[in-house]
Write a structure and sequence with these properties.
The complex is a heterodimer of chains A (357) and B (485).
Chain A: E1 25-28, E2 30-31, H1 35-51, H2 57-70, E3 72-74, E4 77-81, H3 85-108, H4 113-137, E5 139-141, E6 144-148, H5 152-159, H6 174-187, E7 189-191, E8 194-198, H7 202-235, H8 243-270, E9 271-273, E10 276-280, H9 284-300, H10 306-319, E11 321-325, H11 337-350
Antiparallel strand pairs in A: 1-11, 2-3, 3-4, 4-5, 5-6, 6-7, 7-8, 8-9, 9-10, 10-11
Helix pairs in contact in A: 1-2, 1-10, 2-3, 4-5, 5-6, 6-7, 7-8, 8-9, 9-10
Chain B: E1 3-8, E2 16-23, E3 26-31, E4 34-39, E5 44-45, E6 54-57, E7 63-66, H1 69-75, H2 81-89, H3 92-124, H4 127-144, E8 146-148, H5 153-167, E9 177-183, E10 190-193, E11 197-201, H6 202-207, H7 211-226, H8 229-250, H9 256-288, H10 294-307, H11 318-321, H12 329-339, H13 353-362, E12 379-384, E13 393-399, E14 404-410, E15 416-422, E16 424-427, E17 430-437, E18 444-458, E19 462-466, E20 473-479
Parallel strand pairs in B: 9-11
Antiparallel strand pairs in B: 1-2, 1-7, 2-3, 3-4, 5-6, 6-7, 8-9, 10-11, 12-13, 12-20, 13-14, 14-15, 16-17, 17-18, 18-19, 19-20
Helix pairs in contact in B: 3-8, 5-7, 7-9, 7-10, 8-9, 10-12
The chains are: A alpha+beta (357), B alpha+beta (485).
Amino acid sequence: MEPDPSPGQDLPETAAPVAPPPEPEHHRFEFRGRAGEYFRIWIVNVALSVLTLGIFSAWAKVRRERWFYGNTWVAGAPFEYLAEPLPILKGRAVAVLILIAYVGVGQVAPLVQPALLIALGIATPWLVYKGLQFRARYSGWRSLNFSFTGALRPAINVYFWRWYALIPTLGLAFPWIRHGQTRYTVDGHRFGGENVTFGAGTGSFYRLYGRVSLTVLVLLVLALVGVGLLAWALTSRPGLLSPQQSGFVAGFGGVIAAYAALITGLTFNSASIAGHRFRSSLRARDVLGLYFTNTLAVLASLGLLVPWARVRMARYRASHLALLAAGPPEAFRSSERRAEGAAGAETADFMDVDFSL
Amino acid sequence: MNHRGLLYDGESARPVPVTWQVSAGVLLIRGEAVERQVPVSGLRATSRLGSIRRVVYLPGGAQLHSDDNDAVDQLVSRRGLEAVTDRLERHAVAVAASLVVTVGLVGWFFALGLPWLADRAARALPPETEEAIGGQVVRMLEETVLSATTLDEETQARYRALFDDFVADLPDAGRYRLEFRYMNGHPANAFALPGGMVVFTDALIEMIEEDEEFLAILAHELGHHRERHLTRSVLQSSAVVVLGTLVAGDVSGATAVMIGLPTFLLENHYSRAFESEADRFAFAALQERGISPAWFARIMERLEAGQGEDTPEADQGSLLTYASTHPPTAARVAVALEAGADLPPPGRLIADREVARLAAAAGPEGAVDAIPPEAVTGCLTGSFTPEGEDGPVTWVQRTDPDGTLAIETTYADGTVGRSRGYWALADRSLVEYVAGLDADSGAESSAGITYRYRLLAAGPDRLVYRDPETGDESDAARVACPDGL
């Protein structure tokens, strides 16, 4: 799981709005990292992770995040990733154990696997809540840290209870569920003493999902026809993956990409902090094209083009995001920074765990 | 030397542009309306990484941000894990070595390491674990695709006897069970299930023509059991899934295809390796019992022909091989035939109408001459007088190296018949013909009639047989091959 380089940032407000409403200043996000530099970092870290049987991967993750954050700039300053490897290592150990248990149970007792999934579903709100806290606390910009102040209870509501609405409404509740989750995520973030607010209503999510559903439909049809014909032409005999399955796999990947692009765009366009706003110009078809070509490149290079693919995606994402600053970003002040840091340091001892893989 | 930087006070996002330098163990920071002196010892800074901006944490919460990596390196310790990693990342040889190490280790691990580990683990586990692991899968199969057999008791008993006889030599004979199941809507198949079960589907039993074919498939399935393939495949595919998920988590932006395709290919690679291993076990077990592995080739080819094009085993294309769970049938057949090179090939006289008539006249154990393996090539001739015939019947037979026979039979009234077929030896001294298909039309004629002869003597030019039932002896002589044979 990889949030955007800049999860719901926020920018400060000028001292006092003067007579004419100031024209917002446009700050484009920019990704400055070069694929060549990242390749060296990546391959060395992969090698060390392999040699240490995965233990180093926590350090590798920190270096990767630091490099991507540190190369993402807006309004003249880079982002910072500040997490330490040890909590990540702990979280990974737990996550790997859960994964092994899940896969193992799947092999030994497939009928029990759903029970594990349900257990994981019950734990999800807490995991999300901890994860948001962790990532926010260790993300910084211009020497100030982000923070996540959302409470656990609303997380339980949007990440657990709301799912129960899915089946009775035949899935029509899905945009409503996702809206609640996105609002919880965005609203809970703070930066420089200011709250991020999420302005999108449920209606905008329904419109977005309408578009996604249409895209899904079109993509599925195209993928079915295209891949089916391709498979037929290549083999004249169906392989192990039937054309339907291949089409589904390809269509699924495309849908995820397009959906991620649209949801990111909507999230940024609806977030604001102290009068600053964001403008996302991500386009689903661009993202789709990037995913497609990246996949081909990674597969054809046996994985060696992974750094290039990641940098390419980061560059696209950054270049299609802009900060519409209502005033100078220098105005952010973090009155809470000290307290937040202290509290963070305490919890870091035991509960500060990043569960993502 | 002066370096440029930005000083943050730790309270606000507003930086002050400064210059800084280190002199006599003191960090001097100067800017507009700012001047700070901080002892260098005990300063903390973010570790170097590529060319991203560094942060030096000053006492009191202020931060000095600087892009001058080499200068910041002078401020803080360059030891520690992250500093070492950074130096490796900037060292061309280390980068090249990492590439070699990664590609080599990952390749080695999936090609050899993981299969070896899984093998050792599977053999260390008691066989009962397999039942614990797979019991639920068997129950699911039983509840979904499998149902009670429709084979009659007699057939079942016959194959059970063959089964008992075959497994008797294995060290853990008591573990294995033979089961018959009806499997709706699936091609003829046999599989090894946890708990030592070997299941033959009714469709497969119906397709089997000779006991040796049954034993060949049985040996393959027992190979899966003996090599602990069930446990090993559970261990291996679990490891692949876990590692694939870890990689997917690490490579953000990884698409389903990026992870799914290699995983899919790898799992099929493992599956093919298991099939080949089971084949090797089967061929050795068959050879030990004097049965040619070519029997395996025979039933495999027939299965493939019978199953049409919609099974993975039918995939012959080189690309699709990698997408298959089984090696291409042609390759398995070739290996089987090679393994059977020293044993008599599958035999089965495909009699034409003349032979059928002779068979009917001579009775089920009639006195028809037969050819031992030593006389595989060249032409032979012999004669005999079957009961009920007017005079002697003479025959000329050419045996090709692949075991194919061409037979020309001359009857007492001067008519001549031709047929083609195969011969077999149940063991090295018992010659066996099984009459079966008409050579010209391919239609079933006198299927199932078996002629057995004991080989008494074999020389370069002469073969002597005795029919164990009647005690009749006949001999055959090597002759020059006549035209047309």
